[in-house]
Structures are given as C-alpha cells and as structure tokens.
Here is the input.
Amino acid sequence: MDTIDTGYDKETGLPKSKKYLERGLPPYLQSSLENMIASWKMIDSGRKDLHWDIYWCELNADINAAETEQEISAEQAWYLRENYLRIKRGD
Here is the structure.
C-alpha cells in the first residue's frame, strides 16, 4: 500500500521542513540573516567575500541576543545556527 507524503512528521505532526522557524524573526536578525545568505552564495560559488567574517559574527551575535531576550526560541536559534552559520550542535 502506497502512503501519501503530506510533508508532516507522522509522530510529531510538525512539518518536515523546518523553514517555518525562519518566520517572525526580529528585523535586526532578519537583516543579518540576509547578509549571511548573500555572503554564503558568494563563497559557495567560489568567489571571495571580504566581509564574510563580519557577517558571520554579526549573525551569531544577533541569534544569541534574540534567544537571550526570548525573541526567538532555542529551537529557532539552533535551526539558524545549523543552517546559516553551519555550526553543528555539540561542536
């Protein structure tokens, strides 16, 4: 019997894609996230971005500040760190 993929986890009921964790971010965090995305695009295409380290540090600081101020959840913070800072939990 074929099962239909609804895009939701059967056990948790949550969407399989975690992109929903990017919604409702404070404006300062959204801005630093956009800078980091643009920087990674340059780096991943083989070009240099002389501001990459600035954007990385800014995004890291903004994630930490938003989490500390309870503007985002710990789950959102780790999602952003893993996907945009490329940090693995436990490193």
Remarks:
- Residues 27-44 form the longest helix (18 residues).
- The mean pLDDT is 91.
- The two ends are 42 Å apart (CA to CA).
- Residues 33-85 form one domain.
